[in-house]
Amino acid sequence: MVAGFRVFFWRMNDSITSSRRKFLGTSSLAALGSVNxxxxxxxxxxxxxxxxxxxxxxxxxxLTDWVTLPDKYTFQITHxxxxxxxxxxxxxxxxxxxxxxxxxxxxxxxxxxxxxxFGNQFQGGGHGLEVRKEVDGEFLYVTGYQMLKxxxxxxxxxEVVWQKYAPMESGIYAKGEDTNPEKVWGRDRFxxxxxxxxxxGGFLLADGYGAHTVHHYDANGEWKGMTGSSGKEDGKxxxxxxxWIDDRNVDEVLMVVADRANKRLQWFDLDGKHRQTxxxxxxxxxxxxxxxxxxxxxxxxxxxxxxxxxxxIHLGEDPEWRKSVTADKNAxxxxxxxxxxxxxxxxxxxxxxxxxxxxxAEWLATGRISKLKKV
Length: 375
Hints:
CATH superfamily: TolB, C-terminal domain
Shape: globular
């Protein structure tokens, strides 16, 4: 991973200021509305579909009906997934903002049995979710968009370590965006989507739906700079929805960005200089890495793997199926009876388990979490 992140800046109209704001101290945990609910749930046996996706050494069995929620909870547009060191799966959904007593984050064991739920403060805008192992243990990093416009660090039980809003020191956001978040969209608005992590303790934060830029924070939670702005040229973005650190080549560690609406991946060095663009995607939504593989969920009905040479291996690729999905996107999203085993609809996020299995979260009204079991 990254030994030290060199500060990079994209100066927009020379309006970037040098002021910094501090994160809340990590020594004091604030509840800030979080809910920690622990409930047991009998797990129905996972139904094997018998369907194998992929090719060669990259083959996976598609498992359906894999996770089960207690009756009192529902999935409300599933968004992202992450796995901790105990192989527990964390799922975040957008959630209905009017249901403030309903959790936005659910935790399951590796067999799909429900363990606990929390994070009701992210209802209505739950989006990004990552697990990070640090000196003091493992933590969840969460983003909220829509009217929430926030990002936070939580314990694995949902306690808030810190919570932050728009980095006004960047000079690119509308007045009050950090103190009075509203459901207002635009390039001068803050709509964070996903994280990537640096070995020095810092992290990168994609403002995928807002300013179309990537922010850099250091290990102390101080904003250090940003790269990219809205546009179609190399080095610019149209919905930089997901990102990760690509260290498959140890001699050249890069940041890779899922530039979703531009239908491509872009790589940058750690000074923010554009290095490479890879086209051929439809709506790439996020990234993860295991060994020499990059994992790219594509919102348009497929999941893609890239090997060390970036050779493409599509999982669930079916152009005819995609036509049926895109013909009436909203109808398919809301009709589970039309979903087909082994065929994706809208993969919004995917992550690897340590053993090479893949979990996929789809952007569907009633939620869908699939498991691709490594063959």
